[in-house]
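call fold(seq) -> tokens
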Amino acid sequence: MRVSNIAIVELPGACQVQARVLSERQEDHDEWFPPFDLWFRFPAWCRSYMTLENGDPFVAALLVAAMRTSERLVVAAPVSPRLMAALPDIQAIYAAFDKRAHRITVEAAVRAEPLPFSDEPQSTGLFFSLGVDSFYSLLKKQREQAAGDNVIGHLISVQGFDVADEESDRHFSPQFLTNLQRVAAATHTMLLPVETNVRRATAWLAPWTIVHGGAMAAVALALGGAFRRVTIAASATYDTISPWGTHPLLDPLWSTESLQIVHDGCEMDTIDKTWFNACSDLFLETVRVCPGYAPEYNCGRCLKCLRTMLDLWQSGHLDRCHTLPHHIDPGQLRQALRVGDGPVHTAAFRRRLAYVESADGPPGVRDALIAHLDGDEFTKPSPARRKLRWRARALT
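ret:
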């Protein structure tokens, strides 16, 4: 896999770093893929932080895809010495996560001098999607900011990373962008909206469940020295960590001499994060958790929506949430649970059931949870089948 023609393009109100990606195999080979352009688009003010002497983002974005196709990865730009030194460990973790990912050779010049970096206090970013996990990291840091250390200065939101709707994958929806801007204003941070085709470009080469961690790191790395620290919100707790693209072992390994990448939030599960967040009116008025198989901001029918609604109901805040229905339909919950949520979430659903029973919750909700946990309506499908079922439930 060869990365060439690296360029920085100035667009109206934006700037873009891009490269051409080609397979080194013959077209008749099973692992050959057609050439494609990979790009990252940022607001125009980011241009001064970009340089052609930065191959870091392309290594991070394409490593899993190259491992999946068993091709060496050749990048026509210098790469951070620290990142190059970490690649054996990163590949070892990926190979353990995915048996189809094979260790490969990465060929690139090692950068002789670190990229210039910002020493401004606000040069700390957080990947932010309006979801439970990233909202928790933001609100937690806001409470801690009195200490004056690692205060979040920028909210980095990448279109398409958290939703599967094709149109949403290409453009920020007006409501989503408005709410991002509202949160940034309320928390005295700067919104950094990013567009990239990395998910679409690599979709048929490697699974997004594994690719997305490197893709997030690539966004931060593409900005060179704009940030000294970037935080990725955890989606699991220390006792439920499983193979996943963002991971407390993986994320810090993407760091360079000038940029520290941090994995944050493993100390608290989704239920407790939702309860923590629910104390914030800003969260209740803007939260978005839906995977985006339907066009609504939150469909209210998929498992992620219903799971969040259940947690908000248990915290006593569902009727104050502006972006989710205030009623949990037992039939829709039963249908959503049939999709399957994997064994990692079983303990969380047992906890939800215990609360529903202790609070004398709606019988239909209790029965749906009991049926799910007893296995009457749950057989673990493949990730691909779960995706198809999620899409079907949301659309109907």
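The chain is about 40% helix and 15% strand.
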